[in-house]
Amino acid sequence: MKIVVTGAAGFIGSNLTDKLLELGAEVIGIDNLFNGRLVNLEDAMKYKTFTFHKSDIRDLNFLLDVFKDVDIVYHEAAFTSVPQSVKMPENCNDVNVNGIINVLNAARRTDVKKVVFASSSSVYGDTPTLPKHEEMSRWPISPYGVAKLACEQYAKVWHHVYGLNTTSIRYFNVFGPRQRDSPYSGVIAIWIGRLIRNEDLIIFGDGEQSRDFTYVKDVIQGNLLVAEHDIPGEIINIACGNPIKLTDLAKLILKLTGKENLSIQYADPRPGDIKHSFGDISKANKLLGFEAKYTQEEGLRDYLKWYVKKYNVNLKIN
Ligand code: UD1
Predict the structure, then answer these.
(1) Ligand 1, CB cutoff 6 Å, lining residues
(2) How do residues 84-110 score in pLDDT, each as one tens digit?
(3) Ligand 1, from 82, 117, 244, 276: best to mutate by most atoms within 8 Å of Cβ?
(4) Which residues, at least 6 apart from 182, have a Cβ–Cβ distance to it below 8 Å?
């Protein structure tokens, strides 16, 4: 199979690229290296079946050229941060919404067989219903959530109007190897960076908010299952299915790393943050046979082991 991964040098895109190459696919990676890093593609570059283009998904002519004879496009390139979208809503809209319109147009015009879009649980917003299931109403409360909702609706419409085979996967707080430790990154990567530097962990808000943290290997499993099953026009949750409160997560990370001497500090809540996120994965199970293979603790252990080996840090995992 010939597969394009947009955002290939990013956290999720690079993990997906590695797995696809390992399974024998020919992979074309695209990334503008705004958030992505070439170092994430070190393993992929060893494969003769991998090609990389430093380019932008907003360049239609480039996509038209590169999508020729492609079986699947995994669209992972995105503006990914909720707080950054609050600061720069126009950029978020440009990258995410204009970006997917280009990807869908190019895929349609070059007869790509399937497009799989990386959507987000942030489309659900702050509705009280838990767990969040795909058929419920969506009330995003950040520019990022609104943009991801628009993207998945476009993907659906490209199926209904133009017959393109599209599926959107709603990711729930993905964590794991290669997630960046930057102010706009996911909380787990930020906290691991802090505890390695012996800094206290900071929680925005009262720590009662919860997230359904999902290990990246399960997210990759979900993506592979969508390649194997034809579910055009569908939108599907991929989650661990087991939320944890932020305070409990902080305590768990400190316990696993033996850093209980560090404390947990509380700061002002972040605008645009939702309170609870918990994914119902029964649709993914029914249509794809998906089940999360990693609990949050198992995922954290696997991630920490990778981290210690990769960066040669002095951290004992309990
Ligand atoms: C995350 C993803 C987003 C994805 C969504 C659903 C990132 C950067 N964002 O958003 O792309 O679509 O999940 O899958 O990966 N927090 C702290 N301390 C910190 C950092 C964060 O307490 O140092 C809190 C936040 O206020 C929030 C929670 O941790 O309540 C999770 O935040 P974050 O990891 O940024 O993820 P989401 O905003 O949920």
Answers:
(1) 80-82, 120-122, 171-173, 184-187, 190, 202-204, 209, 211, 246, 270, 273
(2) 999 999 999 999 999 999 999 999 999
(3) 82
(4) 190
